[in-house]
Amino acid sequence: MSAPQTLLIEDRSGVRHVTLNRPESRNAMSLVMVEELLEALKSAESSGVRAIVLRGAGGHFCSGGDVKDMGAAYAGPGPGGEDPAAQVNARFGHLCKAYAETGLPVIVVLEGAVLGGGFGLACVADVALARETALFRLPETGLGLVPAQIAPFLVERLGYSEARRLAVTGGKIDAQTALRLRLVHSVHESGEAIEAALDAVLADIRKGAPNAIAETKRLMRRARLHDAGSLIDDAARAFAAAVRSDEGAEGLAAFIEKRPAKWVKG
How many other CB atoms sit within 10 Å of the CB of residue 43? Predict the structure, then answer.
């Protein structure tokens, strides 16, 4: 991918680290950033990295959508007579869906402002690590707007009751409350502590086979919406394919030989 305008991207030890890099606006998401985040994920999926880490520059994760940038887009004409506001909003929805459905493990490192769309990105991650400084808020209804594209992911992450409560009250919560609600999975006092936690998570991810992790994520997405009985045959086919795959053969051999599997070093 070409050099991004709004992101810092670095591959380290088989992991793609993506930093939202608009610190002057607390990393508010512009239209360019949305497209660059989509391209960063697409590139990561084809590059062989084991995971993708999202974080923000300047002590904040993301303050939501860039109101000025998106407001200018709303005023322009929409192709085919479509409402440009709906088109812009839908594009962010595609971003959330892409990160929610990728086969790559997605980890977010959260600090400072985690607002609106940034709140939504936190909800789509597989693992969410937070600093004590993180402050979560859903400001949309206070602006006369709707948290449209993140609503499904709020419900999925927090449950229907808590998602409703936060949506109608503006959702202002601190890191410890986010941990209690299981919005995040751990809270850390310092930068050193959260980096150590991230390293530990990535070490655990490397122990899993890449294709097995991706297929497990796919089955779990289906399990949210389907009765367990309806998944039996699909799950059995996925298991059989894994058993007969190169990963399955390597995993069994590594177990018998009492050695790390080849993918662990990746």
Answer: 15
Bridge partner list, 136: 114, 173
- The residue segments making up the domain with residue 74 are 7-205
Tokens 């936190």 — which residue?
A: 122
**Non-local CB neighbours of 211 within 8 Å, separated by 6+ positions:** 103, 242, 245, 247
- Percentages helix, strand, coil for the chain, rounded to the nearest 5? 55, 15, 30
Report the run of H or E that residue 171 belongs to, with start and end.
Answer: none
User: What are the pLDDT digits (tens) for 153-207?
Assistant: 999 999 999 999 999 998 899 999 999 999 999 999 999 999 999 999 999 999 9
Helix extents (H) in 4-127: 31-47, 67-75, 84-101, 117-124
Do 199 and 232 have their domain in common? no
pLDDT tens for each residue of 119-133: 999 999 999 999 999
Q: Three-state SS for 19? A: strand
The CATH number for 251's domain is 1.10.12.10
